[in-house]
Amino acid sequence: MEEVMTSNPVTVSISTAATRVRSIFRDEDFRCIPVVQEGHLKGLITRRDMQNISANKSNIEARGIMERPKLIFTPEMDLIDAAHNLLNSEEIQGPVVESSDNFKLLGILSVFDILLALLENGANPSQKTLGDIKTENVVSCDYQDSISTLWNKMDESGFSGLPVLKKGKLIGIVTRKDLINSRNNLTGMGSGDVKRIPAEKIMQTPPIVGTSDMSLEEAATLMVQKDIGRLPVVENPKYIKKEPFRAKESDLIGIVAREDVLRSYIN
Questions:
Q1: d(CA 140, CA 167)
Q2: How far apart are CA 261 and CA 133, in angstroms?
Q3: Tens-binned pLDDT, residue by residue, of the chain (267 aa)
């Protein structure tokens, strides 16, 4: 496990201000930040936690935001068992501590870490293509939907990213990180004005996409290389010439999360 996990993760103390935590999420690509006291784990702060902290509450400390981790890993745990625990708990990462009696933080183990290790060791998935595992009923948003609407959709669905449609065509992806960044990047506006900004102003475009016949090995490699958590499955993509996996427009027919791909590798 120690060879696979992310060692020496960036941490914050229990007294770190929420503004500092938000700036770390904004500047780095972390999906969670451990909260420690004298090197021992006290809790975790996720992007979802930060998304729910409004600007007028940003003076609170990490101890007021953090949650107790649902999962705790120790170095001697079997990697495949750890992967099953992650998927069963619907988490994408968990802290690794010295032992169940000593919560000294050693690292973070994520779906990304496990998938990368499986690819490097030549593992084979049980399914063959994205079409075999895609979710067809996709929770999406319209390019004109406000940030406030996006927050609500993510909260209600539990998804950390949403495809963005314009006249029925996929044109972008918006994630929790985009929502967190929107509070910092859209300057000169009150918090109420920021919440009315449309998805098209903060989305990532053109999105990285896959097709139903894309192999799971190719999809897994793409997700790891680009560090993306979900891959829209599309038809009729109009690709960008210099970036073959990015499509400026396509027909959305499904979506595959990194967890779906991992599940195929360990079942």
A1: 13
A2: 8
A3: 789 999 999 999 999 999 899 889 888 888 899 999 999 999 999 988 887 775 545 579 999 999 999 999 999 999 999 999 999 998 899 999 999 899 999 999 999 999 999 999 999 999 999 999 999 999 999 999 999 899 899 989 989 899 999 999 999 999 988 988 876 544 434 455 667 889 999 999 999 999 999 999 999 999 999 999 999 999 999 999 888 899 999 999 999 999 999 999 999
Going by their DSSP bridges, the two strands 141-142 and 161-166 should be labelled as parallel
DSSP code, position 210? B
Q: How far, rounded to the nearest angstrom, does the alpha carbon of residue 85 sit from its chain's CA centroid?
A: 18
Hey, how many other C-beta atoms are within 10 angstroms of the C-beta on 122? 7
**3 state DSSP class of 14:** coil
Distance between CA 206 and CA 150 in Å, rounded?
A: 19
Closest CA to 62 of 46, 45, 47: 45
Place of tokens 């050693």: 106
List of long-range contacts for 74-83, beta carbons under 8 Å, 24+ apart: 74/1, 74/98, 74/99, 74/100, 75/1, 75/2, 75/106, 76/1, 77/1, 79/1, 79/4, 79/114, 79/117, 80/266, 82/1, 82/109, 82/114, 83/111, 83/114, 83/262, 83/266
**Shortest CA distance to 142 belongs to which of 175, 168, 178?**
168
Q: What is the DSSP string of 63-88?
A: GGT-B--S--B-TTS-HHHHHHHHHH
**DSSP class of 180:** H
User: How large is the angle between the packed helices 111-120 and 79-88, nearest 10 degrees?
Assistant: 140
- Alpha-carbon distance values, 165 to 119, 124, 134, 188, 209 (Å): 32, 34, 18, 28, 14
Torsion angles phi and psi, residue 154, rounded to 5:
-70, -40
